[in-house]
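Good morning N.,

You mentioned wanting to compare the apo and holo forms, so I went ahead and generated the holo version with zinc ion. This is what I fed in:
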Amino acid sequence: MKIPARLAVALLGAFGLAAPAVSQQLTNAQREAAVEFTLNNTWHVMLHEIGHLFVDQFQLPVLGKEEDAVDALATLIILEEDGLNAQTILADTIDGWLYAERERPTRGYTNSDFYGEHSLDIQRSFSLACLMVGSDFDAYTRHATRVGLPIDRQISCADDFELASRSWKQVLAPHKRVDAYGAKVEVEYLHHDREYEDIVHILKQSRILERAADWVTKTHVIVEPVLITAEHCGEVNAFFIPSDQHIMLCYEWAGHFYDMFVETIMPEREHFANMARLKREKMAR
Ligand SMILES: [Zn+2]
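and this is what came out, ligand included:
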């Protein structure tokens, strides 16, 4: 989300802010899966905010909704640079938006869902799946099918991918780093409430902010210095603040995705894994 200074509008503001479930009793494997899910969703949102940064610093043309455009950029970067991990990172991000949408029936739609800067969570999820399958049908059709994209749309997603990929490559080409580095990107993990200690630890240990900063400076020549912070901000959100050249990741954002995984996604994934195992055993008899 891109916001004017000090005018924070909630990206996911309708979500409740319960204490994170990090402290719940989990097996090591469950905890690792929850951390991976959290970091995968966080990586996509960091690249999304970097997209806003590029639009602002490079004065890029954006022909359509900026929020959709930077979502696409985040997805394209992951598809291009994360190799075999891209599949898991993007599948987790798809689930992040899908499960966010599932919480909607309890609060219903309001006009702001339609006039807001962002597309609906379910649309963001479909758009991501569309770019994935558009980039490589054979590799990603099962993900697109899983979220319910029909085959004819999966096929036409190749055009969506080509257009998004060509457009971003074209506007970013003059700003790619060839030799000299541009302005610096600093990283800080700021003060936090004790309830987010574990989330802070997860983020620090992963060095995800440092990775985002390195990625920007190694790949592009930015004009103005940038500060990337993780901090407690009282809402589930992430921002780019153009007046301060500041990308802000809220601890609440990471905590929310951790909770979402532990409380909803993990039980479902475990259930389906068990069903699949039982089916295999039955077939083998
Ligand atoms: Zn945004």
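The mean pLDDT is 90.

Happy to go through it together on a call whenever suits you.

Best,
F.
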